[in-house]
Amino acid sequence: MGNCVKVLLVLLMVVAVSTPAMAQGEEIDEAVVASGFSMNLGAAFGSGLVLLGAGMGIGKIGSSAVESIALQPEVAGNIQTAMIISAALIEGATFFALIVCMLFNG
Asked: I want to staple 19 with a disulfide (CB 3.0 to 4.6 A). Which of 25, 36, 51, 68 is the partner?
């Protein structure tokens, strides 16, 4: 089993266990526990999709920039600047989406 699959399984277990553990009290309302679990699962799934998309986008920018620099080394500075600006914009959108996922967690 790959390391990535192991990490995803551990994260899924943490999300599954976190809501019932935090809901301990005198009386446990099963509807609240189920609602909290689905909210945590939705936030985790949304965060995963956001990070997957950002990783793919930045990877595509990097590979295209390296290919462009290999074809025209004389414009490497301009290509690198455009690549860094594009990657920064993608990361900014990623952080915004992660914050939205966390805020709507509950």
From this structure: 36
Name the residue ranges covered by the structural domains of the chain.
32-106
Q: How far apart are CA 65 and CA 29, in angstroms?
A: 54
How many angstroms separate the CA atoms of 12 and 35, rounded?
16
Listed residue (51, 30, 31, 29) closest to 102, CA to CA? 51
Going by pLDDT thresholds of 50, 70 and 90, the confidence category of residue 105 is low
How far is Cα 17 from Cα 78, in angstroms, rounded to an integer? 49
Regarding the domain with residue range 32-106, which homologous superfamily does it belong to in the CATH classification? F1F0 ATP synthase subunit C (1.20.20.10)
Are 20 and 34 a contacting pair, CB within 8 Å? no
The structure's pTM equals 0.59
